């Protein structure tokens, strides 16, 4: 509880008087000593009159020092400091995640409700990775949680996962840059894409990430491209499941549109035959068709890569990461130099994984995405509410809100931020982002103090009067420059149902454990890449000729996933200890 303002001011005044008295006494003593030494030098030190002069001069100068210190005239108004830290009245012994601090009013930051999701915002150099993302990730792994980690600066978080993941949880890595550190996965596997709606969702993710800015600048052609690609995906799933991979779909989209439409029209699936009719109509308008083909093919062209095709044409694991019978942690690796190429595929993998994770009866899990605006997940604002009830903890990191608004739009940005109840804000170089944080804390009334001194004359003697006046004024609890000037590792924060609702603290970084397991786990040669790419080309060419061969290794029947029974409660989860503080 904060000390009442009047009490604080009383002790401030007493402290000042003590200091002024000591300084005045010291000053008077020094004057006395100087005069005594001077008079002794000239042989007058023993004269009674001189001794009285020394004594009264010391006292006089001491009193003069005291008056000058205590009443220096009219002071400028001073403003009492606005409060940044707020206690809630709850006693919390421990949280699910606990972050030690180096200084500040709060000694340990306790995140008690991670399923109410977490936002971590800070410009480069703010320390959001080593102060927040890494400690939370380490504790989540130690608690045996499954999930997805988006490692934008791969390998940054990946070695940390390898060092802390428990033995009963499998860890997988996707990295298109260095295939020695990458597993293979099929995000559109027939067992995953069980409905036409999923095909459209996955096509939306790919096209909008390729288009950038959510693909809203050319909505008509973007939507048409989504429709065309979703039909190709669903056709492969229903008619040619052995070819139901993203590399096959990409190469099929590059075939002559007239022939692909004929292929779709011959489908046994009535949904495909009906949905392809608008594309058949578009064939009559060369301009419209060219625009649709250009939107899709121009974007997909960046994805034609032997490395991408290698990773996406295998199936080392399924994306049901929090399956209690087979818990997994998946690290998606990106790199800044090729994020526009890898981003759409990584966004698809994140979308599919989140869809699979957000199911009832699954194990506790995390969905951690640093540099969140570098990928676009359609309708992401709808996930946190249902993830909360399904035990999925969403943790996203951003540099500033302008990037997020540029990718998701203002409305969706605000909707997403409204679902993240635990929020951390580090140094912000962007003025608008710093202003957002300042306004988020709001205003409060603070007391302005004005001190003045005047001379009075009652007819007999003169004196001085010292007075103070107090007034209330509205002031931002956090100034914009306060946010811009935060040090590395220093954060303002808002917590949900913890002992503090708001705070400012310098978070202590943790020591990263050694990772002997982090090393290349396979070797992929150029010959292997070329052979895989050529095989996919041949299979699509055969498909377009109308004589698809039988698969060498037929896939098993495609079952509809059944709800998984709820897992048994884990005894090792550190439940937050909350109690009302009466």
From TrEMBL:
Ranges of compositional bias, category Pro residues: 548-571
Q: Which Gene3D superfamilies match?
A: P-loop containing nucleotide triphosphate hydrolases
Membrane-spanning regions, if any? 13-35
Q: What are the entry keywords?
A: Cell membrane, Membrane, Transmembrane, Transmembrane helix
Which residue stretches belong to region Disordered?
Answer: 546-582
Coiled coil, from the record:
none
Task: Offer a single GO CC term for the protein.
Answer: plasma membrane
**Record InterPro entries:** P-loop_NTPase, T4SS-coupling_protein, TraG/VirD4
Return the similarity comment: Belongs to the VirD4/TraG family.
Q: What is this protein called?
A: Type IV secretory system conjugative DNA transfer family protein
Lineage in the entry?
Bacteria, Pseudomonadati, Bacteroidota, Cytophagia, Cytophagales
